[in-house]
Amino acid sequence: MCDLVIVFMAIMVWYNVKQRLPEADSTVRVISQQWAWNFVHPGPDNELDTDDDITTFNEMHVEAGKTYHYELLSKDVLHDFSVPVFRLKQDAIPGRIMKGWFKPTKTGEYDIQCAEMCGIGHGIMGARIIVETPEEHAAWMSQGSTGKLASR
User: Fold this and answer.
1) Are 37 and 26 within 8 A, CB to CB?
2) Is the pTM of this model over 0.85?
3) Which of 10, 33, 86, 141 has the fewest Cβ atoms nearer than 10 Å?
């Protein structure tokens, strides 16, 4: 009987953490490939797969205090999307879209890593997540929607 209770409780925890996502303010697509990260941000309309989407290479921009869903996919091999400061780690599996969420609370620049040995260039597969104030994020988004993003 105790085993059944433990299994039931484990399933409930898994469901609450991985399946029941909070309401999103925005969704970002995270595309992994040997050996880089591409991010597709929704443009001013806050919808993915429209003409105003903003695509960045090894740099994700988000706004502090907003809840983000992500759609994680891999173009080639197993990767692992890891943002250590958020305690976020999710496998990227070719042919599948993995979903998850995060809510950044403090502005700054933080590391994104691949935490899965994905080939000879694994060690150089780093990126940054830039958590911005609402004003900074609006300014970045207006640059991106006009095609005038400055590369870092």
Assistant:
1) no
2) no
3) 10
